[in-house]
Amino acid sequence: MIWVDGGSFTMGSEDDIADDREKPAHTVTVDGFYMGRTEFTQDIFEELMGWNNSYFSCATCPVNNLSWLNIQLLVDRLNEATGKRFRLPTEAEWEYAARGGNRSKGFLFSGSNSIDEVAWYAGNAGNRSHPVAQKAPNELGLYDMTGNLWEFCLDNMSSNLYARHHQLKGDQPRVNPVHIVEASDPRRMVIKVQRGGGYEFEAEESQVYRRDGASNNVRMPDIGFRLVMERSGNE
C-alpha cells in the first residue's frame, strides 16, 4: 500500500470530448488514505479465497471475472485475517490518486501524457490483461491506474451526479464524497462505478477523468479492482 496525502483537486473535465457524466469539472477534497500499489493480483486472491476463475490466468496478473459483490466477501475475509480496514476506494479517492494526488503534474493519463508509457490499452495489449507493474507508475508510485483492467469503486453510478451537485451547491467543494444509495435488499442489482479504462479501450476513451459503470453482480474479464486501507486511530 502507498500512503496518499489528502488534498483538493479538480474532478471531472471540461474537455469537448468528455461525456456529460464527466462534467462539470469541480473541486473535491479528500482525506489521506493508503492505496494499493497495483491492482489486486490473482495469487493473493487465490491464497485468501481458495479459488480463482480469472481469465488470462497468471499469478501476478490482476484478478478478474468476479463481481462487486464477490469483492465484498474478499474484503471481509482480508479484514478478519489482518485486523486492518480494507475497502474499495471511493470514486473521488480513485481519481485523486490516479491524477497523482498532491504531486500531480496534470497528465492526461495516470502518470503520463503518452498512454503507451503507463498503460495496457487497445493499442498495445493484444486484447488481454497483463501482469501488474510492467508499465511506468504515476507520480505517487501507483501502477496501471490507466488501462489493464477497469477497477470497481465503492460508489453507485449516477450519470448526472456532478451536474446535480453543481446545481445545488455551485462552486462549493465536495468533501470526502461517496454516492451510495442503500437498497432494502442487499442482493438487489445496482450499478457501481468503474474507473481507469481497460485493455480493449482506445487512448481517447482512457483519460484519467473517464467514468463508467457495471452492475454489482456482473463478472467480466476486463474488470478488476484495487483496495484502499483506512488509517487506524494510532497512526
Automatic annotation (TrEMBL):
InterPro entries named in the record: CTDL_fold, Sulfatase_Mod_Factor_Kinase, SUMF_dom, SUMF_sf
Domain spans labelled Sulfatase-modifying factor enzyme-like: 1-228
Gene3D superfamilies found in the cross-reference section: paralog of FGE (formylglycine-generating enzyme)
Pfam families recorded: FGE-sulfatase
Protein name, entry field: Formylglycine-generating enzyme family protein
Upper taxonomic lineage: Bacteria, Pseudomonadati, Pseudomonadota, Gammaproteobacteria, Cellvibrionales
